[in-house]
TrEMBL record:
Residues 1-26 are annotated as: Disordered. This is Uncharacterized protein.
Length: 222
């Protein structure tokens, strides 16, 4: 196992994989991803390991889980899944003033508005709902769609940025079903396509890199 960051504890999880030669270096996209995780989420504790039968597969291992939980990352586009896990399972949030400016790193242009401090439970609940509505409205506006579709998104279960990110990782067959459901809620064909494209973009926070730029071969990327 290879420590993700200096000073991080190293978990005891074993993937029962053979040791790989030292020349199997971490690919550049993974180094960039780890740097961004560290900058935006200083409280995350994890490590990365490589394990495969004949090739090289890269994993992020969450050391906050008991037992440790691993996430295969075949490309930079898989890293947001690990971040979403840390947010959902452990309540990890952006830390520090500088990292607030990097919030779009994981969900481009989708920044949740925190509830305003108010007196009374009803006012607090209203502020929380308003924050969620703002996320959906902002998502729709980024796709060039009317915010009137926000209720349709809530009806099918698209209620927060974590779900938006997770939906973007689903296979096409599942997104086809989502399109059908959105159409039944009143979205026209083009609107459904734009929502789908927006979900896909939410999973692409990093620029694509060609394998030729990496010191390891395409097979080593998984």
């Amino acid at each position: 196992m290879l420590p993700l960051f200096p000073g991080d504890s190293v978990g005891t999880m074993s993937l029962d994989a053979p040791q790989h030669p030292k020349h199997a270096r971490r690919p550049p996209w993974l180094s960039v991803s780890l740097s961004k995780i560290r900058k935006s989420f200083p409280s995350i504790r994890c490590e990365h390991v490589r394990a495969s039968d004949g090739g090289i597969d890269w994993y992020l291992v969450c050391l906050l889980c008991d037992p440790d939980q691993s996430f295969e990352v075949g490309s930079e586009h898989d890293v947001p899944k690990f971040v979403a896990h840390a947010q959902d399972a452990h309540g990890i949030t952006l830390d520090g003033e500088s990292s607030r400016h990097e919030s779009g790193m994981w969900m481009p242009r989708l920044v949740e508005t925190p509830p305003q401090t108010s007196v009374g439970e009803s006012s607090t609940a209203h502020s929380c709902l308003a924050g969620k509505a703002d996320i959906l409205s902002q998502f729709l506006m980024e796709q060039g769609l009317s915010t009137s579709f926000a209720q349709a998104l809530r009806t099918v279960g698209i209620v927060n940025r974590s779900r938006i990110c997770r939906l973007g990782a689903l296979p096409d067959a599942d997104l086809d079903r989502l399109e059908t459901r959105l159409a039944s809620e009143g979205l026209d064909f083009v609107a459904c396509l734009l929502v789908r494209a927006g979900l896909r973009r939410s999973l692409l926070p990093f620029p694509r890199r060609k394998y030729a730029d990496s010191p390891v071969s395409p097979m080593e990327h998984g």
